TrEMBL record:
InterPro entries: P-loop_NTPase (IPR027417), Sulfotransfer_4 (IPR040632). It holds the Pfam family Sulfotransfer_4. This is Sulfotransferase family protein. PANTHER family: P-LOOP CONTAINING NUCLEOSIDE TRIPHOSPHATE HYDROLASE PROTEIN, P-LOOP CONTAINING NUCLEOTIDE TRIPHOSPHATE HYDROLASE.
Length: 216
């Protein structure tokens, strides 16, 4: 199995909805941070290695047909080069709402501080925080990086290979881009804010190994 779709959008741009949509279209399993964390330290180390310029993409994405969300989205260019036949989908949303969402969830201050003290934090630092210059609560800076990332993706991926997509646009643009029939069901709308908060708090309280039990 090789990647057929590469998601270049940051976390909190509808990536869980996008994961569900790609899997419904038969382009799954779809790799997402929720697939990454339970795999444990050996898997996380592969991301740290990739950030240092020593990726093993085939191992990281073994068994997956697509990927969205962090940590893969900050490596979109390397992945697009490595999987030249894959199409790239850049999920976007209103930058102000994106920032607000991150501060409640994946960039919440208590979570960022916790990650600085544990092994899990190393790959997150290397693949996400460093990409954002480690200014995880600086609104002006993060919104600027959000917009810069969108511009960089547009500049580096040929238009014929790229879809810039908001999940509220539904099946039409996505299916046209992927050359697939439109399902006769509604596009998935996964609002995972509360679930994300819950997982974060469980990890902080009990530790990642107790929460996930590590499958890898």
């Amino acid at each position: 199995m090789t990647l057929k779709v590469i998601g270049a959008g940051f976390g909190r741009t509808g990536t869980m909805s996008m994961k569900a949509a790609l899997e419904q279209l038969g382009l799954g399993p779809c790799y997402h941070m929720v697939e990454c964390l339970p795999r444990g330290p050996e898997h996380w180390q592969k991301w740290t290695d990739a950030a240092k310029g020593h990726p093993d993409w085939d191992s990281i994405f073994d068994g997956f047909a697509s990927t969205v969300d962090f940590p893969a989205s900050t490596s979109y260019k390397a992945l697009a080069d490595y999987y030249p036949d894959a199409k790239v989908v850049l999920t976007v949303r209103d930058p102000e709402r994106w920032f607000e969402s991150t501060q409640e969830t994946i960039f919440a201050p208590h979570w960022i501080e916790y990650l600085r003290t544990v092994e899990m934090g190393e790959f997150i630092q290397a693949t996400i925080n460093d990409y954002l210059q480690d200014r995880m609560h600086d609104k002006e800076h993060l919104i600027r990086r959000f917009n810069e990332h969108i511009a960089e993706v547009r500049a580096s991926i040929p238009a014929s290979r790229l879809l810039v997509f908001e999940v509220k646009d539904g099946w039409g643009p996505l299916c046209e881009f992927l050359e697939m029939p439109v399902p006769d069901t509604d596009f998935p709308q996964v609002n995972d804010t509360e679930a994300t908060k819950g997982i974060i708090n469980k990890i902080i309280e009990n530790g990642a190994e107790a929460v996930f039990g590590y499958s890898g």
